[in-house]
């Protein structure tokens, strides 16, 4: 199984899409002999799906198509050499995956056929067991449906532990601690911007373009920051390796 679970799509507004992961993504595409990809665009609410596909084509150096260019969304996944799931609104994305019959289609593609999966932000969220640690608003439905479950631990993308002056609401740390208090058997990996987890050949690696840490939230334990992915070894079935 090959997974790229990225916190965000850009490191700056004018930066190419997924630029901070280009070395690893291009190496995977070359290694697997991939010539095309299918973009799952349903998290995008105010953007253009075709434009995002063209942008990805430029970024990845391969043809990227949207499901509407196939006989059906399921047919698109069944024919995919690479599955790319865009960021946007996680609630809408997860609901659309269920409505279009793509949950099982993507699970089979990734687990049984070995099709690589690349997801950022919302696309990262839906790769975990559920979307309960997304930062997004439930604009479409408040029902928490199961997600893809390709990765066994909850992830919080776009993690930020800065304190904004004048903000009187809960911090991200407090919200994630609340999640763990309500779900004490679960853990949350908090990924900062420009960082990602990569699963390949049953190995897990962590990358940060800025050399920053990730945080691990677990009920009853102090919040800990790590650079070393070995900290996740008790939580994942993959062999943890340095980047």
UniProtKB/TrEMBL annotation:
Class of the enzyme per the UniProt entry, highest EC level: hydrolase
A Pfam family annotated for this UniProt entry: Peptidase_S51
GO biological process, any: proteolysis
Residues of the signal peptide: none
Gene Ontology terms for molecular function: dipeptidase activity; serine-type peptidase activity
EC code: 3.4.13.21
InterPro entries: Class_I_gatase-like (IPR029062), Peptidase_S51 (IPR005320)
Keyword line: Dipeptidase, Hydrolase, Protease, Serine protease
Family stated for the protein in its record: Belongs to the peptidase S51 family.
Record-linked PANTHER family: ALPHA-ASPARTYL DIPEPTIDASE, PROTEASE S51 ALPHA-ASPARTYL DIPEPTIDASE
Record protein name field: Dipeptidase PepE
Source species taxonomy: Bacteria, Pseudomonadati, Pseudomonadota, Gammaproteobacteria, Enterobacterales
Protein encoded by which gene: pepE
């Amino acid at each position: 199984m090959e997974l790229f679970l990225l916190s965000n799509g850009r490191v700056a507004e004018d930066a190419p899409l997924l630029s901070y992961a280009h070395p690893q993504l291009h190496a995977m595409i070359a290694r697997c002999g991939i010539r095309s990809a299918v973009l799952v665009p349903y998290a995008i609410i105010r953007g253009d799906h075709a434009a995002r596909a063209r942008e990805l084509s430029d970024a990845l150096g391969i043809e990227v198509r949207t499901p509407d260019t196939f006989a059906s969304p399921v047919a698109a996944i069944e024919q995919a050499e690479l599955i790319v799931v865009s960021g946007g609104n996680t609630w809408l994305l997860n609901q659309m995956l269920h409505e279009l019959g793509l949950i099982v289609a993507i699970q089979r593609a990734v687990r049984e056929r070995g099709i690589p999966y690349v997801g950022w932000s919302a696309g990262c969220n839906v790769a975990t067991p559920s979307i309960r640690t997304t930062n997004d608003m439930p604009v479409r439905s408040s029902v928490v449906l199961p997600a893809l479950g390709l990765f066994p631990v909850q992830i919080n993308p776009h993690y930020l532990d800065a304190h904004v002056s004048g903000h009187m609401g809960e911090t991200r740390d407090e919200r994630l601690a609340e999640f763990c208090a309500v779900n004490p058997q679960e853990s949350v990996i908090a990924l900062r911007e420009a960082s990602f987890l990569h699963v390949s050949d049953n190995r897990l690696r962590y990358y940060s373009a800025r050399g920053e840490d990730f945080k691990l939230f677990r009920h009853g334990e102090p919040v800990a920051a790590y650079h070393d992915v070995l900290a996740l070894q008790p939580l994942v079935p993959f062999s943890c390796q340095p980047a």
